[in-house]
Every structure is written in structure tokens, then in C-alpha cells.
Design a protein that fits this description.
- By secondary structure, this protein is of the alpha/beta class.
- The protein has two domains: 1-101 and 262-357, Isopropylmalate Dehydrogenase; 129-253, Isopropylmalate Dehydrogenase (3-Layer(aba) Sandwich), CATH 3.40.718.
- It has helices at 14-32, 45-51, 57-64, 88-98, 122-125, 162-177, 193-209, 220-229, 241-253, 293-305, 310-325, 342-355; strands at 2-10, 35-40, 68-73, 103-109, 129-135, 145-147, 154-156, 182-187, 214-219, 236-239, 262-266, 272-276.
- A ten-stranded mixed beta sheet has the order 2-1-3-12-11-4-5-10-8-9, with helices on both faces. The chain has a two-stranded antiparallel ribbon with strand order 6-7.
- α1 packs parallel to α12 (342-355) and α10 packs antiparallel against α11.
- The protein is globular and about 50 Å long.
- The mean pLDDT is 95.
- Bound molecules: nicotinamide-adenine-dinucleotide (NAD).
- Nicotinamide-adenine-dinucleotide is lined by residues 13, 73-76, 258-259, 275, 278-284, 290-291, 294, 332.
- Nicotinamide-adenine-dinucleotide binds next to loops.
Length: 357
């Protein structure tokens, strides 16, 4: 097949890690007989410097026409002035909104080779493989909010409409069918009216459209505990914006290796946006020490979720596992001295795509 990727390297280590992921995608194309196009566009701080806009119109247009978008990271001290007219992160928010990306997917996977890096005991973390679906464009972050005239009282409204709940529950349930067939919906229905609506709508979607998927509901406070005490019991988890924000950050600590965690934002029809969860790490930019594996795994998610190339995605994931099995470690995941830098890790994963096939 032919597919067009837009690459948004961004700032800091962004260019290094996106270039690593591109190298791996190019190897996938050769091995599996596909043709992938790569169109690199400015975004973030670099785009502010060049165009005065963190998301230039030409970048947005290119993204609209892509099959998938791969982002490095944006931001850095140079653009941190709180009084600045615009900031790099504004480009990211604008892109998500313009493309209608309402679902944020965050896999929390324990890599066997890095179990010792987890703050959890081996018997708790081993085998953990969770896929979070966090609603991204609604809820309390986008509801009305106001401060009283005397400045002594403030309100933020959490609101969800039926359609917003249905579409993300459907996406999550479909993903569950392709995994271990289990979906957990997280809410606070014992207290919040908006959560009672969420629970009713989710239950109806599951009964009517996904009766074959094993479905449960869990209260968000209980979920915060279960994530630590029995994380292996969860497969796909779907929740609203606020709860998802907090739970995915909690979850991202479990594997103990930030440099390995990818994320995706997807909508109904537009191309998905794939990125590592880490930032632009300006402290290590340009030194060939950044871990490229999160971005490489984000590329694997793009293959699976935007291009429907599951075998190819699995080949990339197996190649990452093979590189770790071979003992390759960038500085952030090395117990002692690192054995490889960014470029060497990318080469090793690309080689492993060929070998593991
Ligand atoms: P960060 O994730 O960039 O860095 C935190 C620490 O982790 C640093 O010590 C860094 O060196 C290390 N680190 C991060 N990614 C790594 C990798 N792949 N390999 C090895 N080490 C890695 O978070 P921060 O320092 O809070 O933020 C730096 C900049 O990134 C800020 O400008 C922030 O606004 C921006 N940021 C951007 C995004 C995004 O683009 N989606 C997300 C978070 C932060």
C-alpha cells in the first residue's frame, strides 16, 4: 500500500527521535512491500521562530491530507516566556482541535527487560498491558468556568453530551475486540450527574453493539488504587478527560521508563496524531543520548490505528523488544553506562525489523 506521513519533528530532541522513527518506518516499507511518503513540516518553537506561528497554515493543511502524523515534541526554555504572544503548546492544541482528535490512546506496557525500573514489585508489574482511551475534547477542561466578582469563589463545569460518550466508548470497545476483549469504563457515578449519564450511555452502547465484549465499570477513586494493586487485570480502559489525564499519568509511572511510552490522538475520520509522551528534553538535545523508542513505538501505533497494518506494527514492537533483549540501553534506561546512543538504537531496531520477520 501507499501511505503519506507528515513528520512534525518540533523542538529539542524531537528531530532526533522522529528521524529514528522514520528510519524504522522506511525499513518496514521495504520488508513488507509498502511505499511510505514523508513530508516534514515545522511546528512548535521552531515554527514560531520561522513563521511567528506554532502551527503555520501550510503545516495544518499538510496534516489534513496525511494518512498519519508523527510528532516529536515541542517547547523549550527559549519559548517559555509566560508573556509571549504565543507558545509552542498552542500549536498542539490547535492541531488536535482542527483535526477533531477526540480520543487519546495511551498504552501502558511493562517491558519484561526493564521490569527492575518499575516502582512496583515484579509480581505486580510483569505482564501489564493496558490501553487507555481518554476523552480529549470535552469534560471539565472545556466546560464553562468563572470566578466570582469578589474573587472568592470559582466554578468549572464538567459537561458531556450523549454523542461524545458514544463515539469514544465505541472506539475503545472496537480496540478491545482486537486485544483481550475486556473493557473497563471509569467514572464517578456515585456523586456526579455527568458520570451517571456517562455510565448509562456506555452501558447502552456495550449492550446494543458489543455484547461479546467483557464489560465492567469502576469508580475513579477505586481505579487509582487498582492501577497500583492489580494493574494486570485491565485490558482497555475508557474514561473522560479529567479522570483520564490523572490516571494515564499515574499509569505512565508503572513501567518506570518514560522514554518508552507512546501515545496517539485519533478522531472519526481525520488522520491520527502519534507522539511520545515525553517532552522535548532540551537538556539533552543534539547529544545523541535521547531514547528514540517511545517515538518508534508511536510509529507502530500509527501503523496499527491509522493504516490498519497490524502485522507491521507487531514487527516494530518485536524489534524494540529484540533490541532490549540484546541489552541495548540508552542513558535513561541504563542501570550503569549506556550501551548505545539515539542513532545506534534506531539502527538496531531497524535491523531487528528485518531479522524478526
Ligand atoms: P521532558 O519530558 O522533556 O523531560 C523530563 C526529563 O526526562 C528530562 O531530564 C529529559 O532529559 C528526560 N527525557 C525526556 N524524554 C527523554 C528521552 N526520550 N530520552 C531520554 N531522556 C528523556 O519534560 P520537561 O523537562 O518537563 O519539558 C521540557 C519541554 O518539553 C518543555 O518546554 C515542555 O513544555 C515540553 N513538553 C512538550 C510535550 C509535547 O510536545 N507533547 C510534552 C511535555 C513537555
Amino acid at each position: 500500500m501507499h501511505a503519506d506521513f507528515v513528520l512534525l519533528p518540533g523542538d529539542g530532541i524531537g528531530p532526533e527521535v522522529t528521524s529514528a522513527a522514520k528510519q524504522v518506518l522506511q525499513r518496514v516499507a521495504v520488508e513488507f512491500g509498502h511505499s511510505f511518503g514523508f513530508d516534514e513540516r515545522p511546528m512548535g518553537g521552531r515554527a514560531i521562530d520561522e513563521y511567528g506561528d506554532p502551527l503555520p497554515q501550510s503545516t495544518l493543511e499538510a496534516c489534513r491530507h496525511a494518512d498519519a502524523i508523527l510528532l516529536g515534541a515541542v517547547g523549550g526554555p527559549k519559548w517559555d516566556d509566560p508573556n509571549a504572544k504565543t507558545r509552542p503548546e498552542a500549536g498542539l492544541l490547535k492541531l488536535r482541535k482542527a483535526l477533531g482528535l477526540f480520543a487519546n490512546l495511551r498504552p501502558i506496557t511493562a517491558h519484561t527487560q526493564l521490569i527492575e525500573a518499575s516502582p512496583l514489585r515484579r509480581d505486580l508489574i510483569e505482564g501489564v498491558d493496558i490501553l487507555f482511551f481518554r476523552e480529549l475534547t470535552g469534560g471539565i477542561y472545556f466546560g464553562d468556568s468563572w470566578l466570582s466578582d469578589d474573587g472568592r469563589r470559582a466554578t468549572s463545569v464538567m459537561e458531556y453530551a450523549v454523542g461524545e460518550i458514544e463515539r469514544i466508548v465505541r472506539l475503545a470497545a472496537e480496540a478491545a475486540r482486537n486485544r483481550r476483549n475486556r473493557l473497563t469504563s471509569v467514572d464517578k457515578a456515585n456523586v456526579l450527574e455527568v458520570s451517571r449519564l456517562w455510565r448509562r450511555v456506555a452501558a447502552r452502547v456495550m449492550t446494543d453493539e458489543f455484547p461479546d465484549v467483557d464489560y465492567e465499570v469502576v469508580l475513579v477513586d477505586a481505579m487509582a488504587m487498582h492501577l497500583i494493586s492489580r494493574p494486570r487485570d485491565f485490558d482497555v480502559v475508557v474514561t473522560g478527560n479529567l479522570f483520564g489525564d490523572i490516571l494515564t499519568d499515574e499509569g505512565s509511572m508503572l513501567p518506570g521508563s518514560l522514554g518508552l511510552l507512546p501515545s496517539a490522538s485519533v478522531g472519526e475520520t481525520q488522520p491520527g496524531l502519534y507522539e511520545p509522551i515525553h517532552g522535548s528534553a532540551p537538556d539533552i538535545a543534539g547529544q545523541d543520548v535521547a531514547n528514540p523508542l517511545a517515538t518508534i513505538l508511536a510509529a507502530a501505533m500509527a501503523l496499527r490505528h491509522s493504516l490498519d497494518l497490524d502485522d507491521e506494527a507487531q514487527a516494530v514492537e518485536a524489534a524494540v523488544a529484540a533490541a532490549l533483549d540484546a541489552g541495548l540501553r540508552t542513558r535513561d534506561i541504563a542501570a550503569g553506562d549506556p550501551s548505545v546512543g539515539t542513532a545506534a538504537m534506531a539502527n538496531a531496531v531497524a535491523e531487528a525489523v528485518t531479522r524478526e520477520r
